Amino acid sequence: MRYTKEKNLAIILIAIGALLLLGKFIPFLGFISGTIMSYLIPVIMIAIGYYGIKRGNALFGYIILIIGVLYLLSKLAWLIGPLLAIGLIIFGISMLRGRGVKRY
Fold this sequence. Notes:
transmembrane, LiaF_TM, LiaF transmembrane domain-containing protein, transmembrane helix
């Protein structure tokens, strides 16, 4: 039996489906599968949007891509805020030391 892209996708879909089904019966797996799916759905939407853009259906692709990016940004807001704060602190310190943005 030779493995192709379609068979790999089928195996991934079966594994995700099994995880979701087991999550309904085992509470611990339900928490894990819910957490995984909450991040996996926006990533899949981004991939579908990118695929739509590459295949020539730009309007549909951009709509799905933008919705996926916004949804993923909302899920990662707990990480983006502190990273932005750290970046601002580092940028401010570098400006105080005189190594700020070079202007040409």
